[in-house]
Design a protein that fits this description.
about 40% strand, 2 helices, globular, Multidrug-efflux Transporter 1 Regulator Bmrr, Chain A, about 150 residues, 9 strands, alpha+beta, about 20% helix
Length: about 150
């Protein structure tokens, strides 16, 4: 797995925040977002922003934002039922990987193991996120960028 430290800009987004087990909330959130995006003919980067450590937080307390990036000046119409937010920029530990058979858990575990081998960076309190480069919703196979927020030790 090839990894690097990258500097990412802040990214504005529209999307849905859901709470509960990620294997349920991520597909649900993207289904909602896909419908909303189709009605508004928007284009952007599809991402999932994760809140909570699944090794210590019970599944029902995990949160995810399923989002599409938008320009900074994007304005939502009142009553749309969708949220608008900003993903913080800064340093991130990055990899581009292929997930097979929807096994995101193994991909994240391997990615975190790579970061733990480094002594010069540590995880900070911003959320981890995925940027999808392909739609694997039918096949279960995904190409994506994964990002872990970091700060120097």
């Amino acid at each position: 797995m090839k990894t690097s430290i990258v500097e990412r800009p802040a990214q504005h987004w529209v999307g849905y925040r859901l709470q509960g087990p990620w294997q349920e909330t991520v597909p649900q959130g993207f289904a909602q977002l896909k419908d909303w995006v189709a009605r508004h003919a928007l284009q952007g980067e599809w991402m999932a922003i994760y809140y909570g450590n699944p090794q210590v937080v019970p599944p029902q307390e995990l949160s995810v934002e399923t989002v599409l990036t938008v320009p900074a000046d994007f304005a939502l119409a009142v009553g749309e039922g969708i949220q608008h937010g900003t993903l913080a920029g800064g340093h991130y530990f990055h990899t581009c990987t292929e997930v097979q058979n929807n096994d995101f858990f193994s991909a994240w575990n391997a990615f975190f193991a790579q970061l733990q081998q480094r002594s010069d960076w540590q995880v900070d309190d911003r959320p981890c996120y995925e940027h999808y480069l392909s739609d694997g919703s039918q096949s279960g196979n995904w190409l994506l960028n994964m990002y872990i927020p970091v700060r120097p030790v």
